Amino acid sequence: MAGPYYAKDLRQSELLSIGRHREEAHIWTLKVGELTYNKFDSAPPSTIQHHPLQRKKLVVSRRTINISIFTMAIKSLEIRPLSIPSTSAVDFGVEIHNVDLENLTEDDFDLIQNAVYKSHIAVIKNQAGLSPKAQYELTKRFDPTTDNYGHGKTLNAKRSVLHPDLKTIPHQPQVQVIGNGYYDEYEGLKNITLKHPHHKKFHQDAILEEDDLNATRFFRWHMDAALYALNPPKITSLMAVKVPEGRRQTLRYDDGTGEEMDVPLGTTAFVSGQNMYRILSEEDKKFVREAKVEYAAHPYIWMSPAKSRSDGLGMLSEGLELPNSELPPINEKDIKILPMCYKNPVTGNLALQIHPSAVKAIHLPNGEIMTDLKEVRDLIHRLQRPGISPQHVYPHDWVEGDLVLFNNQGVLHTVVGAFTPEEKRLFRQCNMASNEGVLGPDGKRY
Ligand SMILES: [Fe+2]
């Protein structure tokens, strides 16, 4: 018989019906005739490995095909750069195709892990059927000794600025649901109304009501981290279950620069901490390699009465933060003093990685501590602001089934968008507080 026969000839849906289903979902091409094994470069699932070449009768849909000798080739994992407009300076991010995350080989996991650490963001396509449990297990695989959600139980503190935005999946507490709209039931959560965080709830001033659906802002640039008692998670996974269609918005910085960008509704915006470091002056690079930041105790409660800058990159200083007497008990040893730069464990590159809203003080290289909150924030804003200009921002255009894995110790990200109540969005987020501290520029853990 002549071959090969490709999926487009036999219809992919028929090929997918061959044999036992989960492994065979990988099957893309069926080759017939005198074939070599060279399509098996990336290991096929073990159940297929047992009989890659033997006499078989294959049932394809309702037809029976008798094949004397066959081999099944597996469409292997494929990594491509994200498509970035030519006007953008974004040089990070990849898309990954042909992955069955619930049956991931060690080799394929290594490829994904490498991609996340080298490219900061990996968008794994076509994962619509992925369960919360599988999402948790994949996320945990990057940091296997950890098991607690990145914010621990502090998320439930009513006064925390995070409290209204996330709902915990009862049977998988490391996974949170975020989004917009009313849902009768989702993964054991009943009658839930999700509200997409709107900048008017967090920024000092807001876009006028009449422009609200056309224009939006970065809500709050951050890394996912409790920044008190718990170490920052290494990896966050974000899964698009339901994505509103069509609309785009103008993202405004409203900071006097006139900068703005066109973004899809409900994008998540990412910037690279590595790039943020790279574009600093040599003098600033030296400073950020040597200085540290002290985060507030219970930062998300502490900041709750304060208001953000219009670019979402840190808070304004109006003396509104809660005093210690109004916070839950503080254990001095749980206060986090972390480097300004984190070292990438795979590439060794440095990322400027500061959660601007949660910072309370700067520990200067000469040993002094800068505690004037306005001065602290102004300095950090000066260092970080160039890195969030439009050419450095990647606004992901979500498609249902996208599972984004990002290096939470190498990128900052933010929610974006203003929705009507009818525009439904449902996402799942998972990360876990690491048992290891972050890697500083000196190679030490903090
Ligand atoms: Fe986040």
Describe the protein's architecture and organization:
This protein has 446 residues and is α+β, with helices and mostly antiparallel strands. It has 2 domains: 68 residues, no CATH class; 352 residues, Double-stranded beta-helix (4-Layer Sandwich), CATH 3.60.130.10. The protein contains 10 helices and 24 strands. The strands form 6 sheets. Strands 4, 5, 6, 7, 8, 9, 11, 22 and 24 form a 9-stranded mixed beta sheet that branches. A 4-stranded antiparallel beta sheet has the order 16-15-19-20. The longest helix is centred in the N-terminal third of the chain and has 14 residues. The protein is globular. The structure holds fe (ii) ion. Fe (ii) ion binds next to loops. One of its GO terms (molecular function) is dioxygenase activity. It comes from Hymenoscyphus albidus. Belongs to the TfdA dioxygenase family.
